[in-house]
TrEMBL record:
GO MF, one annotated term: DNA-binding transcription factor binding
Signal peptide positions on this chain: none
GO biological process: regulation of transcription by RNA polymerase II
Keyword annotations of the record: Oxidoreductase
Statement: the UniProt record of this protein carries the keyword Oxidoreductase: yes
Domain D-isomer specific 2-hydroxyacid dehydrogenase catalytic: 16-331
Similarity comment: family membership: Belongs to the D-isomer specific 2-hydroxyacid dehydrogenase family.
Organism of provenance: Kaistia nematophila
Protein name, per record: C-terminal binding protein
Taxonomic superkingdom: Bacteria
Amino acid sequence: MRILKANWYPPENPELLELFGSKAEFDIDPIPADPAYRLARARSAAADAVINCSATHLLPADLDDFEKVKIVVREGVGYDNLDLEGWGARGVPVCNVPDYGTTEVADHAIALMLALTRGTDTYDRLLNSDPVNGWSFSRAPLVRRLRGATFGIVGLGRIGLAAARRAAAFDMRVVFYDPHLSNGVELSTGYERVHSLKELMSISDVLSLHAPRSAETTGMINADALAAAKPGLVLVNTARGPIVDIDALYDAMKDGRVAGAGLDVLPQEPADRSQKLIAAWAANEPWIQGRLVLSPHAAFYSPAAMKDMQRKAVECILTYLNEGRLTNCVNREFLVTPAKVRKAS
């Protein structure tokens, strides 16, 4: 069985060969430096399965080039960079790995909140630039008491729920908005529920985003939503960059309605200095100092999570091709009945 790992990025996991070396042969194709790069036809034609390692890069080939492919796996949670409908029309299931970095992302969301509301990022920067004059407890602009503050969550899935539990441990009031969950979830979790984004915006002291990217969620945090925000809101995004209209966020932060933001993801990655918010942050403009913390789409990462992610992606493929059992399929609505899967030798 030949598995093509497209858009691969380091670090490599040598344990994959130890675990699966006798069951699969891996063909590694790294993220291309040239945006116009096209995957070699021979590689795509030889693959029995494909893993797309990147959360943002598309597969650098046409679907028709993958003649033998029987399953595609996104090595991670998000799958908005895969053609679900196109693969489904060919009878090829697309799956993801939803259970590898849940705790890491939830931890990271809380860490971004704390970096702003406890001032750790600001204190470090000030002390680094001037250890004497920077020795001041009052120069971090967003420090506040978290006990009793409202932690709002958009999307109470696996990661959202994990973040909720962590916020509750800080004695915060947890409120969520998720129109896709059935009635009664609030009873089983013990968290409060609201039924509109604007209501959640209006009561949240911290708003943490944990929704997937979709037509429904793209641009969800826009000028209208931010206009409804409780003054002093801290926004945290560890989900997908395009969920937030970054120009609208700039305006809301500039006029003071939004106090600060911790962003692990951006609409364009890496960070694009042509965007007003990024330009102001990069220039260290006085008004934004201590109010914006960025990280490089790293919320998912720990060495252990990376190994889990890579292993689980391969296990998903082997389970399907060898046993016919499909797990974590994300394109069922488009999936025509695939040809009977033959056990791979």
